[in-house]
Amino acid sequence: MDRRLIVLAGGMFAIGTDSFVVAGILPQVAGSLDVSVALAGQMVTLYALSYALLSPVLAAAAAHWPRKRLLLAGLAVFVLGNVITALAQSIGLVLASRLLAGLGAAMYSPTATAAGASLVPSEQRGRALAIIIAGLSSATALGAPFGTYLGGWLDWRATMWFVAGVGAVAGVGVWRLLPDIASPPALSLARRLAPLADARILLTLLTTWLAYSGLFVVYTYVGVSFERATGGDSQVLAGMLLLWGVAATVGNLAAGRLTDRFGSRRIINTAIAIAAIDFALMPWTSASLATAIPAIIVWDLCGWGLLVPQQHRLISLSPAASPLLLGLNSAAVYIGVSMSGVIGAAALTWLDRHALGLVGAALIAASLLAAEWAQQRIAPRGHVAHAS
Q: What is d(CA 47, CA 380) in angstroms, rounded to the nearest whole number?
């Protein structure tokens, strides 16, 4: 396996761990700083929003920077943000540091995926993207559970030191092992933003946003949605979440090979359709452990398996604008994840907590309509086969 891609995946692992681990230590943060859990929860919101909103902006603004320098700068800012979080004695400084960490993630993530895609021949692009994104998905299986355990064993500050350490190790790997990668040709701001006027690109981003809003509606409230299966046992829930992360990693890696072989359209449509059915059945499959486990496996094989072909489609549509487009796709994912909590909270006022899967299914089904609408725009123009 290409060590350059592994190095890039290491940085994504750090960013993914930071994204998912904070939810597990919120009660400790709240108790330590004498604030409500709801206020401490804004750590998650501000990190996600900073990442989401700044990814496309920085991808365009720093397009002239050498790729390796931008990757290292992003990881340095990310590590600094987490160090400040670990040292902060007030909730104000904690929240400000989460914005800074999100800035670093926004500098790194789209640059890493675009750089990885440029390091391999076009016919291996799907696999390259899968390896890099596997760093993000494997964080749900390894980084977040370990960081949460560390916080319970020591305290929440130890968790943030752990995240900073992972980011620092990733930075050393990029510095030592990644070759210099030329920056893209210089473009005016108008030309960099021109892809946003393309309906195919906007519809592809809409697909990502709708799909991940639906996929994370249940995850945000997984404890109550699957309480019948877990019997309220937090250890059983932790085991299910570990399985969730493993399936996510497998789905990512499999999607890369399948996308290279069959093209992005088949994988996107198949993953979305199966996920929609899986979520529609969750009011019943979440009732027992025997049916909940297969539901969770299908959920993540399809959910995380969708990210690679979506990125592949965007790069195929406009290779020269890939850093900007991948930044926008990251933004769509994180805005979807952020909104899922709000959508789920609203749904819980009208629906039984075990029926949240139906809300997710509706959003995921809507993403399939957006994906096919994008495809109808793509096909007549005769773009690269893998874009369809």
A: 40
